[in-house]
Write a structure and sequence with these properties.
alpha+beta; 4-stranded antiparallel beta sheet; two-stranded antiparallel ribbon
Length: 436
């Protein structure tokens, strides 16, 4: 059988999250993508900045001239060389397409930030869910072991009563059947606990993880039903998916601007400085023992006015306008989905809090019912199966109550994820409810 962990060496939820941030592959992949996308604005900015180039060449030419047969001219053999260097620069003055691309690059950085925020929230939920899954399976195993001990005690009591003739063999057989059933439940609970711990180990990159449990009789933070409007309102501004959809619409609108710029002129300022050195003349200057040097500088404004592109620009504009409408509809759909998800998560937490209160009352009632059935069995007004059923009801209520508490805590974090306000700092509130 598994050995239950010692809570003195257990880790808190915040500790688990910090370990997962450094280990989880999905989170690290999202972080790398964020780092890569941060350069989008710098890349797009290059389209509106000046460019400069340096070019150089060196050449050597040999010319051999042979007269026609019978001609009087002499052979001509000439060798000359040339070296040149050119510096050129260009500065866009009016290029609306390039400016739109630069703005799109800035939007790409904002999009990367929203994606990073979503990845961080996803990790927070995955760690919290795995953490409380382990605690839930741990509680189930603990309660099953306690129930097994109680049933074993009841089985021994039934056997003694049968031996002295104060009870029937039916009581013994019922207790034995219930003991065998609880033993099977213990095996299943132990296996589930191991599987949940393996999942948490894999998520945080550690072995034999030991989450800290909740403090006894913990008081959970409450939500007020009338606050749902505030949660939904925040979701429309803060949720990463809405941010991404809104940025996608901005990018689509800028893409339309780029398409419309196909009808607009472009203006560039260009400059060039060239230096050429000719050794021993050139091909056109004739033979010379004295070289020459040429320096030439040019500054110009290049204006380009598009006249007709075969209706390609008009077609592109129609395409981008349709994509802009799609992005607008996607944004509206994202808003509706987030609002619905926030409401669902909110009422899930409120319902969970109600269940916790009801199960707390049920736990007290179940304990009283068990005590009454034990006393009734001793005085002969209850049979053994009544005691066994009361025991099962009590431990089932304890398991349900523990799970309901965990569901409320995780549900509170999921509510913040649903409206986009979940942050790593929110784990501190849950962490304060754990044993020290």
């Amino acid at each position: 059988m598994a050995t239950l962990p010692a809570w003195t060496s257990a880790q808190s939820l915040v500790d688990m999250y910090e370990s997962a941030r450094a280990y989880d592959a999905a989170y690290q992949s999202a972080r790398n993508l964020f780092d890569a996308n941060q350069t989008k604005a710098e890349q797009a900015r290059a389209a509106i900045l000046p460019t400069a180039n340096l070019a150089g060449s060196a050449q050597r030419t040999q010319i051999n001239v042979f007269p026609d047969l019978g001609g009087a001219a002499a052979n001509v053999d000439r060798v000359f060389g040339a070296k040149s260097a050119t510096v050129s620069a260009s500065q866009p003055l009016y290029r609306p397409a390039n400016l739109a691309s630069y703005k799109q690059g800035i939007k790409q950085v904002e999009l990367a930030s929203a994606q990073w925020q979503a990845a961080e929230q996803d990790l927070l939920i995955r760690v919290s869910q795995a953490y409380f899954d382990v605690l839930g399976s741990q509680d189930s195993l603990t309660f099953v072991k306690a129930q097994k001990a109680a049933v074993a005690e009841q089985l021994a009591f039934a056997k003694r009563n049968f031996e002295v003739g104060t009870s029937t063999i039916t009581d013994t057989r019922e207790a034995q059947a219930r003991f065998d059933l609880v033993t099977a439940q213990e095996i299943a609970a132990e296996n589930d606990w191991r599987v949940k711990r393996i999942a948490l180990d894999q998520l945080v990159g550690k072995t034999d993880t030991q989450p800290k449990p909740l403090v006894p009789a913990v008081k959970l933070p409450e939500l007020k039903v009338e606050e749902i409007g505030r949660w939904v309102s925040l979701s429309q501004e803060e949720h990463p998916s809405i941010k991404q959809a809104r940025i996608a619409l901005d990018v689509a609108q800028l893409e339309t601007e780029k398409a419309q710029s196909g009808h607009k002129p472009t203006l560039d300022l260009v400059g060039q400085y060239a230096y050429t050195r000719n050794d021993n003349g050139s091909a056109t200057s004739g033979a010379s023992t004295v070289g020459s040097r040429v320096r030439q500088g040019t500054v110009a404004l290049n204006l380009n006015i598009p006249l007709f592109a075969g209706f390609a620009t008009q077609g592109r504009i129609k395409e981008t306008l349709a994509l802009e409408d799609k992005a607008r509809n996607d944004l509206e759909g994202a808003k509706r989905a987030v609002a619905q998800g926030t409401r669902t998560a909110y009422f899930g937490v409120v319902s969970g809090q109600g269940q916790v209160k009801a199960l707390e009352a049920a736990e007290t009632s179940s304990q009283s019912a068990l005590d009454a059935n034990k006393l009734g069995y001793q005085v002969g007004v209850r049979i053994n199966i009544d005691v066994l059923n009361a025991q099962s009801q009590l431990f089932q209520t304890k398991r349900d109550l523990a799970k309901a508490r965990y569901d409320v805590l995780v549900g509170g974090l999921k509510l913040r994820q649903a409206n986009g306000t979940l942050r790593a700092e929110d784990l501190a509130v849950v962490n304060s409810l754990l044993v020290k």
